[in-house]
Prior knowledge:
- This protein is of the alpha/beta class.
- It has 17 helices and 25 strands.
Amino acid sequence: MNQDNHIAQELFAALSKGSGEVAVIDYGLPSPVRVERGVFLVLALLLARELRTEIREDRVGVVLPPGLAGILANLALILAGKIPVNLNFTLGAEAIAHSMEEAEIRTVLTAHAMTKKFPKFPWPEGWLDVGEKLKAYRKNKLAILFRLIWLRLFPRSIGRHFQIPSEGGSREAALLFTSGSSGLPKGVVLTHANLLANCDQISRTGLFDGDSRLLANLPLFHSFGFTIATIYPLLEGFQVVCAPSPLDLSSSLRAIREEKIDILLGTPTFLRGYLRKAKENDLASVRYVAAGAEKTPPSLRDKWESATSCKYLEGYGLTETSPVLSFNLPGDGSRDKSVGRLLYGVETKVIDPESERDLQPGETGILCFRGPNVFAGYLNQPEKTREVLKEDGWFVTGDLGRIDEDGFLFIEGRLSRFSKIGGEMVPHGSVEEAVMKALALSAEEDPACVVAGIEDETKGERLVLLLSSDCDFEVLRKKLSDAGLPNLWIPKEFRRVDGIPLLPTGKLDLTRVRKLAEEN
């Protein structure tokens, strides 16, 4: 893949090959629909021509679940030289409106069913029903057949006719918004070089091959769903099997069972559901679970590997890195509790949180990365960009971690998930693990507790425990003390909540967590 190219050129070239092979299988419809690569490309070209004519602005919103329509909308926008902006339709209206205003979105590609399902979404006047467009194109079978023949005989000619853009490189290719776990979402500008580099880096791991069958059910507004489950398989030429949501376990398990899915992507929050819902042999074809976005509890990994015949592999990435930075691989390419070795072309260093001096291997500090997959900056936020993206190319993540002597990366947590109490850094995650153990709570279920730090006049901060079940707080504090937890680490307050707030991506909703912690 030439990283100077426009990603449309690379996708067009990839889909032109093996045009009779199946590209997308959609299990989000009443009966699974299979679309061949050539037909899929022709449909995308037809839609791209309309979009190029009808839409004047560069950025266009997409509000669709993973599936035929969602992937087609993104591909058509890219082929039209537009910038797809997959919007998180599960957020509140304020956060969505903020994202649309920042990106100057005037048009949204969606489906009529989505407008009915999300009536509070700030729909613009200009929205297009991709499903209706798709039905209209497929009715004209003769036109599709003519273009299929044209594609197979003269691919360069049809590419010129539909004006496939060629110049990419450092130009903006896609805009993804962060989940907003600790504030309003930020627009992450990803270039053509970023996306093509990360797809090449993923390919070099050797985890995927031409016969891989990947379940694509992560949201398109999720960086893993956009790059790894959508763009990457289209470029590599293997089938994309779609289900509408990782929470729709019935559709997902049916797709896994019937299509013999061998690689399953997900976050620990979503992956727990498969173990609860799966019946015997539902997961028999899965060779690897590729987990990311949040830390996996060791007990969940152990349960997956004991209950199924697959290997549970954990990786690490961020929206700002397109997203993948590191991954565990089968055999000697993995280490217990690590997130694997860095991908090809990625550099790292670890700095002290306060002095910012470089630390030695094995020391824990803020992780910084540099490489071709590191983003170009935040949309309309030059100050925030300068805070994290330095002039020499280093991206300062805000995640705490270390690199061992063999080059394996270990994540210790988010800097925002530490409290400084009496001059000491207290990790919220470690306190949560101690609470779970003291209360004999299972890490294989949905999160049952979370710790937050709030302002304290004497110590700087104090810890508040949110718990989704009742407990005798004083007894719990004694158990934590008896287990050897330092006094500064033991929460000073307790809140009983109906459930631990989560974002649609499965991550903790830190904004809501903090609000609950601050309530009297």
